[in-house]
Specification:
single chain, 268 residues, alpha/beta, 8-stranded mixed sheet, 10 helices, binds glutamic acid
């Protein structure tokens, strides 16, 4: 896919658990190192980067001896508390190598309905970016219950893109993008390069699949694409297996699905 990239200054990058961890749940250090190096380098070019990172529950569970068969919500929330520490510690050390400071922002869905909280989150993100800090956002899984959960970090990433007035949202996934049907089941599935409108046919392509270690799946990604594109922010879904894909995106030529923004003014 070929796109115009002039004018992209502020980028939100979302990375999922399946990209950050091995199959056994432990951190995939090689991938995290590559991702951090790439984001640090992009930041060095003068762009502002916000990272929305999952992985708290996954990393926490890999450390704790909870029985997976009988896992309770309380245990998952406890796992998130353990995993988030590890995750942010890792990011902080890795980014420090390149001279970058990170900040941890944990949000719950309440910010959507509570204008004052939304403003506070927005102001904090803005202040951090102005100060040259790279905010790392996750859902505050430890205190989120069913009523106040984003449910997936795909949705959270869309909220963060809206709240920060980003120029682009990149969703690093474990697939290359949106296909005409599920590529794991249909050998004839074709990658959709560009989506200009999220039609019922496009929705049907998304199916309901999510990976074993993440929660999102294509349905949540499409919902997040709808949220941001309607507000004038384009979104890309691409494979996070090699984070260097982010360089390709900023060079304007990449493999993935590009969701066109609906309004003027935020097109790339
Ligand atoms: N917030 C969750 C975590 O960090 C993940 C949610 C998701 O995978 O979308 O583990």
């Amino acid at each position: 896919m070929k796109i115009q990239t002039e004018g992209i200054r502020r980028i939100v990058v979302k990375v999922g658990t399946s990209t950050l961890t091995h199959a056994n749940g432990t951190m995939n250090l090689r991938k995290i190192e590559k991702l951090v190096r790439c984001l640090a380098d992009i930041k060095n070019t003068g762009k502002q980067v916000i990272l929305v990172s999952s992985g708290a529950v996954g990393c926490g569970l890999a450390k704790l001896q909870f029985d997976r068969e009988t896992l309770t919500t309380r245990q998952k929330q406890a796992a998130a508390a353990v995993g988030q520490c590890d995750l942010i510690g890792m990011y902080s050390r890795e980014f420090a190598q390149y001279g970058h400071t990170v900040a941890q922002i944990l949000l719950t869905k309440e910010i959507i309905d509570d204008e004052a909280r939304y403003e506070k989150a927005k102001n904090t993100v803005e202040t951090l970016l102005e100060a040259g800090v790279l905010p790392i956002v996750n859902e505050n899984d430890t205190v989120s219950d069913e009523q106040i959960r984003f449910g997936s970090n795909d949705t959270l990433a869309a909220i963060v893109a809206l709240l920060s007035g980003a120029d682009l949202l990149v969703n690093l996934s474990d697939v290359n993008g949106l296909y005409t049907s599920d590529p794991r089941k249909d050998p004839n599935a074709k990658l959709l390069d560009c989506v200009s409108a999220i039609t019922p046919e496009i929705e049907a392509s998304a199916g309901g699949a999510g990976s074993a270690r993440g929660t999102g799946g294509m349905v949540a990604k499409l919902q997040s694409a709808r949220m941001v594109t309607e507000a004038g922010i384009p979104m890309i879904i691409c494979n996070g297996d090699d984070p260097a894909m982010l360089y390709s995106i900023l060079d304007g030529l990449f493999i993935g699905t590009y969701f066109e923004a609906k309004q003027e003014g935020k097109t790339v």
